[in-house]
Design brief:
Number of strands: 19
Shape: globular
Radius of gyration: 21 Å
């Protein structure tokens, strides 16, 4: 899928671009020359190396005479977004509300939908904070690891509890989202990551009944909204972003979205076609009993055949849980980014 930046006119020091047969997908500049014609006579040499199914073209400077004496500083490079239809209507709520995308963990489509929404907000010149369903204590380290050049070992060390869970939140698609955020940062865009999930000790009440997890999530979201007037977008399981309480089994479930106080919540549910998602949890077996399952899991989807894909639908749900939907079309499974790493 095409993402990120079209490119930069000049870079001092090595940069990296990946060609996908259509255009450049990644840019990793150390700095960008201020002034569009400062490096007009710069000569570049390219060579190709096969890596990760794409082509990386390493850019090496052969002449710097045209750039001599020029001021060099980080600068915003041009964004190339592929927004969903009616993105402008969603971003109209971006600074007054917190936008929550409810997902099924373990797909390619939900992280990509969030990525394109963030891209459009940055394109409009807005600062953006991206919230992920990761243990809140690992948020600062995760944001620091989302910096070019992205180091896989540093990313793993930043959030081992997430990457080791293999429950869909630790997917390749999530890792690629963090890579894209790192690319935006390097290009001078004001974007950062925060984590809002509870720590394991915060998931269970003292009496063993129910869960304070969603209250903890909301507190962390509120902390990251405080004194911030930009766009805040987060990705979480759909249960957490419902706007009213509901019954789950024999208990009332009070979602995160109902506890957030710093801003009103604008909540969107995933509407999708058939496909697969990665799961690590309990599923209903053939005899109706719940069994533990890890791997790709098929689903028939929840969208009608005539649902328009890659579109935001701001028609509130009849049950009052959501303010609308984001329609992805068929979904595809995204496996764990670190399949060989497990929690002890």
């Amino acid at each position: 899928m095409g993402r990120g930046l079209k490119g930069v006119s000049c870079a001092k020091g090595p940069g990296y671009l990946r060609g996908d047969g259509v255009g450049v997908e990644r840019v990793q500049p150390n700095c960008v020359i201020v002034g569009g014609d400062a490096c007009s006579s710069l000569e570049l040499r390219t060579w190709e190396t096969e890596m990760r199914g794409g082509i990386w073209m390493s850019l090496s400077l052969l002449a710097l005479s045209a750039c001599a004496g020029q001021n060099i500083e980080p600068a915003e490079a041009e964004l190339s977004c592929m927004p969903y239809a009616y993105t402008d209507q969603v971003l109209a709520y971006g600074k007054s509300h917190v936008i929550m995308l409810g997902e099924i963990h373990g797909t390619n489509e939900s992280p990509e939908a969030l990525e394109q929404l963030v891209c459009s907000a940055l394109q409009a010149g807005e600062p953006v904070r991206v919230g992920l369903e990761v243990n809140w204590s690992q948020g600062i380290a995760l944001n620091e690891a989302a910096t070019l050049p992205v180091d896989r070992a540093a990313m793993l060390e930043a959030a081992p509890m997430m990457w080791g869970a293999h429950d869909g939140r630790s997917s390749v698609a999530t890792f690629e989202l963090l890579e894209q955020i790192a690319t935006w940062k390097a290009a001078g865009h004001d974007v950062s990551v925060f984590a809002f999930d509870g720590e394991p000790s915060e998931w269970i009440k003292e009496d063993g009944k129910g869960s304070p997890r969603d209250e903890t999530m909301a507190r962390q979201v509120d902390l990251n909204l405080k004194d911030f007037d930009g766009v805040t977008v987060l990705l979480a399981g759909s249960f957490h972003v419902r706007k009213t309480a509901f019954s789950f089994g024999d208990e009332a479930y009070v979602p995160m979205a109902t506890h957030v106080t710093e801003r009103p919540v604008f909540s969107l549910r995933l509407k999708h076609g058939p496909g697969e998602f990665w799961i690590n949890g309990s599923v209903s077996g053939e005899d109706g009993t719940m069994v533990e399952f890890i791997g790709p899991y098929e689903t028939r989807g929840n969208a009608d055949e005539d649902t328009v894909v890659r579109q935001f639908d701001l028609q509130p749900s009849e049950d009052g849980f959501f303010d609308g939907y984001y329609n992805t079309g068929p979904i595809s499974m995204s496996p764990p980014a670190f399949p060989d790493f497990t929690l002890d």
